[in-house]
Amino acid sequence: MKIYLQPNRITLVGKAWQIKYMLKKYQDEYRTVQDWIDGQQKR
What is the residue range of 20's domain? Predict the structure, then answer.
């Protein structure tokens, strides 16, 4: 499982079950994927 964070996108690479697991994990912290991208840019 790899996560590539870029200024305007997030790319998840892995098996389907791994990607679904990571999206559910980050769902607790971020409401939308855009919130996730904006949150990473602030760090």
Answer: 2-42
Q: What is the 3-state secondary structure (H, E, C) of the chain?
A: CEEEEECCEEEEECCHHHHHHHHHHHHCCCCCHHHHHHHHHHC
Residue 8 bridge partners (DSSP):
none
Statement: the pTM of the whole predicted model exceeds 0.85: no
Q: How far apart are CA 25 and CA 7, in angstroms?
A: 21
Tokens of 30: 């971020």
pLDDT in tens, the chain (43 residues): 999 988 888 999 999 999 999 999 999 999 988 888 888 776 6
Number of domain units in the chain? 1
